């Protein structure tokens, strides 16, 4: 073993600390002059202290160490060594190599053989993960060479219990009901304990449930077994592991996700396993414990502030008692009973990202089995281990240097993860793409903007088709029976100079129905043909079944940004009904498909043109809700008027091509009868200086949760709009309410500003 250790700590070139020859010469000098006191690896000996971790030497630079060797340390027992300068420099170079991360000076040996040992006979991968491969009981070692020194890696192999990493201490527990559980303590307090069981799952325990705890002194990891050569090689492998977040990372194939997807397609009543609660996008929960009779007693249960978050737009996801909350490039896993953090994944915000993605917002995750999926600000899709937050794979959706970004929650469909991008206003050509959930490989891609010569390109007259746009920047929906996924798309460019792009400009401001297996277009419907007002149609395509004009129908409803409500047959895209839910004056009529025909008088003009609604739209990215109990479709938005100018005339207009100004805007909540398209009731949601763009939640408890522009969180009667409960969180109302149930108790979540608030009924 001594021979092994001496081999491990020998190093290659260390920047700023001498050549490889210096390090090797210093190793020999250290063994002869210093190891007797400080140990062969500098970790401390019988007569001398640990010189790798000692803080008294100050910064980890070779020059500081050289001074200590030359001058000694008075009154410490460390004598001066009046050696030739070349010898001192070699010793300093070697000591520096002991202190530096292993990846700066990888250990000698056959790293390829070490990798085979790690994933084979060594059994290391049974517990540890490297680049998405392996188990989740031990720390992720993908960056071990960048985080640990060679001496630390070696010590962990030969004596795992010497320095147990927090979160990996072993405990055996006897529960009050007589059952037993054994696992790793991830977090704990006087009142609860978060345990990762040895099968890789999570147990979130209350202290009052526990009868006895036994803290085990022996670590779960045994000392490494193998020949000196095998251990040398595995250290060589581990010392070279340094994570590069810019590089794609491919995952490992799995045996399938049928059962896991079934839990998403038909979720348990108490769970909220996807962005909209279910794949239909209706944001309706069957929970009814909180209802009209008791909602007035709703009280705070817990709150979780997220540091440095300017604005939360996330809809939390709850699966198996764990809540997942996001901001840009970050995921927090919380105990949904208490709000206590379980784990936190983060990567730095990307420099150079532009557009919406630069505002550091994120709307949530998708879940499938033991995987969690997040779109990052630089248009990557990543998969995390749901229990630990370890990175499993990293796939580039698109090149952020071309204007792409990502802010929306992905959508899981069978064994695929679907996502669009942001960046249409920055010139990014839009698409919806599907990735294999196990490996991160791209399976299909549908371009929402055709290239010249492709179907749909004939609806672009002029050079504007050469400019990218039409991104699908909000989460779509899915019908498992039809195997169709539905996505809304963004606006064209130049936005307000329509003369540069005559025609309908497919597939801008369009609802597209795609085959979920192949991404092939099945049908489309365009809520805003030839848009010149920035009225994209990315709003949620909500799916539901019901009667229409006396016949059962599979329907899709969208309250579009243009101020128009559309009801379609989702099997074929046939228009069933269209109406305005706010004041509109831009529609001159409808074509044979039921699509609006724009009125020329409202088109942007050099001297300005008035139009209802303004560019902000009748609604925007705020998620609506459909309540099957009342048959009402609820949407937050504005009654607004704007003035629109075109500033670039001719066929070569670029960029925005014009300007628009908001003249008036009043926030409203609208309740639309899907059978008639008429607004059954509406509520003025103004009342303060704060602004807010809140989502909507409805429940079987005959409740509607949302917020007004003054920051009041509200519970309403969905049939009438009457306020049944309200509270003020002190923040803006850009929030996404959702609900779930644990241990027989229903919770309502209302994120606002940078805080997640949980509400429930007092214990009875």
Fold and architecture overview:
The chain is mainly β and 764 residues long. Among the domains are: 1-100, Cytochrome Bc1 Complex, Chain D, domain 2 (Orthogonal Bundle); 169-215, SH3 type barrels (Roll), CATH 2.30.30.100. 12% of the residues lie in helices and 31% in strands. It is built from 10 helices and 43 strands. The strands form 11 sheets. It has a 5-stranded antiparallel β-sheet with strand order 6-5-4-3-7, with no helix packed on it. Helix 2 (20-33) crosses helix 5 (85-99), helix 6 (111-119) crosses helix 9 and helix 8 packs across helix 9. The chain is globular, with a radius of gyration of 30 Å.
CATH topology of the domain at 1-100: Cytochrome Bc1 Complex, Chain D, domain 2
Distance between the termini: 64 Å
Beta content: 25-35%
Q: What's the CATH first level of the domain at 1-100?
A: Mainly Alpha
Radius of gyration: 30 Å
